Amino acid sequence: MTATSLQKKALGHIRILDLTRVLAGPWCAQNFADLGAEVIKVERPGNGDDTRSWGPPYLRDQNGDNTTEAAYYLAANRGKQAITVDISTPEGQEIIKKLAAQSDVVLENYKVGQLKKYGLDYASLKEMKPDLIYCSITGFGQNGPYAHRAGYDFIVQGMGGFMSLTGERDELPGGGPQKAGVAIADLMTGMYATIAVMAALTHRDRTGEGQYIDMALLDVQVAMLANMNTNYLASGKPPVRWGNAHPNIVPYQTFATSDGHIIVAAGNDGQYKKFVAAGGEEQLASDERFSTNPARVANREVLIPLLAEMVKRKSRQEWIALLEEAGVPCGPINRLDDVFNDPQVKARGMQITLPHPTAGSVKLVGSPMKLSATPPDYQAPPPLLGQHTDQILKSVLGYDDEQLNQFRQRGII
Asked: Is the pTM of this model over 0.90?
């Protein structure tokens, strides 16, 4: 890689040794790959990352047949180089130690203490590379009464309070706790881990000192509740579920149109007046029960059915056109086919296509990070299992073909 090409990659000088699998760790590592870092993904020989088989759907090859790459795996592994190493063997452990010695960062999401028995824990690797940054991602962290529990996103969403806030109100049909449609605790842990590693790299560059990072899904889930946390801490009252409504603003919710759903977010009395005027129901603004937001909140149960009946008279697009013209905040509830056909999403380059060794090409979601001088660099598609084993072990560690053949015959790689 030339000096000029490295300058165009924000993190082109960084090597990440990625010992993670599933989502939180791979999501973090993919951020680094997008920003130009060299990411070496280490997987088990034969099986690899569990998510490779978490399908259907699977990526299809050029003949239309399923490949071995599940769509789930494709979501979090772009831009990496993949090697397979059996870390339970002494030879495999030696390979990982040598790679760590030549890396800036090690990411891992094994159970607490599991890597220590292989000599691949932070204390062991720090002995040979004092400036190493080592990030562990677990469900509950390295200490505390739950430290040795396995951590799953769904469970953490419940334990961390998210599901007490999400879902329809208990007294309404379909009421009750609801998880998010994606693994938010995993994804946000991956994002927080990215920030923490970047901070540690900056500290290392200033001082020469490496450090250990302890990331826990439960910690992240608690932290990301933001104002709901402080609402509770300030009042002593746990917030409750409101579904798609707002506890303090009316109307600020979803409505069914004649052919779909829209969101209306009337944040003040003026916007509310314009909303009902657009629907031909001006009297709902002059009625003293509904003329101010406090009155609308108090009379929510009376007002919302009237608004719902009004909204059903027009289509989704009719309402969006009317309300945009009137200056009332609104938006559709899109399916993913709508999302990727949206002109704004297209303009922002949020769908990308990369060449793929078996499928010919693969459609992926672009990074939301827009940097003017060092934009995301989509180096390669998610790698096949063990695709770069020989290349990495030869170029980085200096193994020859005979050694690699011996390792392969013994199942070490």
From this structure: yes
